[in-house]
Amino acid sequence: MQGIWTTERIREAEGRAFAVTPEGELMRRASFGLSVQIADFLEDHTGSVSGRRVVLLVGSGDNGGDALWAGAFLRRRGVAVTAILLNPAKAHAKGLQALKRAGGRAVPAADGPQWIAKADVVVDGIVGISASGSLRPDAARLVELVEAPIVAVDLPSGVDPDTGAVDGPAVQAAKTVTFGALKPVHALAPVHCGEVVLVDIGLELSDPDLRRLDIVDVAAAWPVPGPDDDKYSQGVVGIAAGSATYPGAAVLAAGSAVRATSGLVRYAGHAADVVRGQWPEIIATGTVADAGRVQAWSVGPGIGTGSEGRDVLRYVLGQGVPVCADADATTIIAKNPDVLDARDPDTPLVLTPHAGEYERLMGHKPGPDRVTAAREAAKKYDAVVLLKGHCTVIAAPDGRVAINTPRGAWLATAGSGDVLSGLVGALLAAGLDPWLAAAAAANVHSLAGAIAAQNAPTSASGLVHAIPEAIRSIRSLTS
Ligand SMILES: NC(=O)C1=CN([C@@H]2O[C@H](COP(=O)(O)OP(=O)(O)OC[C@H]3O[C@@H](n4cnc5c(N)ncnc54)[C@H](OP(=O)(O)O)[C@@H]3O)[C@@H](O)[C@H]2O)[C@@H](O)CC1
Ligand SMILES: [K+]
Questions:
Q1: pTM above 0.90, yes or no
Q2: pLDDT tens-digit profile of 240-261?
Q3: Which residues have a Cβ under 8 Å from the Cβ of 124 and sit 6 or more positions away?
Q4: Domains along the chain with CATH numbers
């Protein structure tokens, strides 16, 4: 798993590193690594390094210092470097001196536009981990003029380092070069960061605040049958979804569970005939009480929020097995919290709200800090909370948080959530830790979306059919 640390933790680690390294050494490591990455970027995008024109946007702190020092290193490789100083009096003095000594130019913001127009690459050294709020007007005016690709220093300026929130003008980078460790912005604002490259500067950090699942983690977690397994030993999942009028949710959630693992899938609900017709391998019954034993339930999509849905949810919560409560089940819980009385507190519960369902559950919107929002809901409901959005945040009641960074936005299609709930249910039935089950499901869900879409719109059915290919491609990395 990739660890991600908040800016507070990064600063603490920097403080420890400062105490044992010569003055300026950390910045030297950071800016040298940055210069190498900028040169690589130039090579990739223009075919050469020497003779190219790089413009640095330099703010008033060490982020600007990194940019200035990197500019000095790039001069040695024959790059023409111009620094636009947003606040000349506060520009990093030693970095500025180094750039000038190396033959670089420094100009005030008023002269910026003419240099920006001629740049092959623009480097964003406006602000780093001490950022607050979106870009200030002087910086925003210059960024707006940029047509060349931008390489961001540490993080794209204007994006909140700890939440990834953007509430005004912000840099949209093609590449972000960060130092020491990944920060939340890198997982939560992928569109603004572009490609993220981590330069090691020797920070020592443990116990990440957040995590991002590597594809190898997903491959290792995904249940694979052994020679002694049969259809029961791999986990039987029950799907309670859909209705006679709207059988689609049932077909998608149950089909997704079929595709996810080799365990048995039971379906219970009014869409039994349709489900059986689409998926002959599913044992389908009319009611949850008739469904037989399962190792986990996935309940909610399309069951309605009336008394019947309530009874179904109460029944599955009382079975002493892990439950993934999705869609209508979330709304039922929000409106009738007493249904949770049926739950044995020791059995895992996974809730999968989108922002609107979150608001129903918590009485307020998730807000810009989605990690804290998911953590609060996980605590309140003593459940794993998978907060849907462009980036999915998965919080466990014990405080663990995983971020699933999307692969494009193709998943924003009708029925996509039903597919996710089937995946989570199948992994819960296979016995995965519920937080890992939710995170791994989100990961394969987004990969299946990318495979199904192939740069054109896809459907939830397309997603279901792409699940085996997604699992295959993940497993190919480890086998
Ligand atoms: N420490 C280390 O070991 C290492 C650190 N390294 C580097 O240092 C960076 C952190 O540097 P830092 O702490 O000096 O502050 P930084 O982020 O440059 O901000 C500067 C000032 O900008 C202002 N400002 C705030 N918000 C703003 C906005 N929205 N738009 C515009 N301006 C805004 C605000 O000042 P104000 O104008 O409010 O007085 C703020 O104080 C880090 O990201 C990494 O790149 C690396 O070299 C590795 C070693
Ligand atoms: K920056």
A1: yes
A2: 999 988 899 999 999 999 999 9
A3: 57, 67, 143, 150, 151, 152, 153, 156, 157, 171, 173
A4: 2-209 (3.40.50.10260), 215-475 (3.40.1190.20)
